[in-house]
Amino acid sequence: MSMLRRFIRVLKDIVYPKICLGCKSRLEPHLADEYICSRCRLKIKKNTPPFCHSCGRHLEKDNRNKNICPACLRNKLCFDRAFSPCLYEGVLKELIQEFKYKGKTHLARPLSKMMTDFIREYNFPVAYMDFIIPMPLHKAREREREFNQAEILGRHVALEFNKGLKNNLLRRARLTQTQTGLDNDRRFLNVENSFNVAKDADLKDKNVLIVDDVLTTGATSSAAAAALKSAGANIVFVLTLAN
Asked: What is the dihedral of CA 31, 159, 46, 145, to 10 degrees?
């Protein structure tokens, strides 16, 4: 029976070879259970310290004494601090889009591992978080996509660090225009007052970690944090896969 299974697997690899999601080349047999080849894996750009003490992006040399980037000096963000292990470009951008828009939810495990590895490497204070909240989608958008990518990523992070996941506590109050293509100011206006908190939520003095896939201007995360703090939350951190 085992010989038959091996034969079927070899035949399947011939007819439907595993393809690297980054460069679209055929994966070598020893990488059959992977999702990208070793060359593409090395091309994923890491977000490296020193980090902006607000949005978590890498600080350029001119801003290191201030501990904050120029964008965060211009925009007051309502979360206390954001963290991201990677940069939203190249191979990783393609992988996130495959995961988010093409339903390749099996990518959640390797993508979330980048987040959990980052937490350990930089001693992210996850132990002080009372629970994790995935960034919610509006019901109409979730029906269209059939899943919430932030919830899937958040579930992996929550399981890894034995934290509760509250996926119905924070809600989208209205369907907003997609942020893609909007300039900085319009992004903040677009999501202003777009979140609310469940009436029975107990957030008083709670420390909360919001999980999402990408942080761009921080407008969406800031609006979500504002709703949580208005409901009594103490510290609100944000963890995204990329920025």
From this structure: 80
Domains of the chain: 1-43 (no CATH), 44-242 (3.40.50.2020)
Q: CB–CB of 142/100 below 8 Å?
A: no
Of 62, 69, 68, 47, the closest CA to residue 122 belongs to 47
CB within 8 Å of 97: residues ≥ 6 apart: none
The whole-angstrom separation of Cα 226 and Cα 228 is 5
**Burial grade of 207 (CB within 10 A; 0-12, 13-18, 19 or more):** middle
Is residue 84 within 8 A of residue 241, CB to CB? The reply is: yes
Share the mean pLDDT of the chain. Answer: 86
Q: Which residues contact 155 (CB under 8 A, 6 or more apart)?
A: 134, 165
| Cα 131 off chain centre by | 16
Q: Which amino acid is at 13?
A: D
pTM: 0.87
Q: How far is CA 173 from CA 141, 166, 210, 234, in A?
A: 13, 17, 17, 22
pLDDT in tens, 30-50: 555 567 788 888 889 999 999
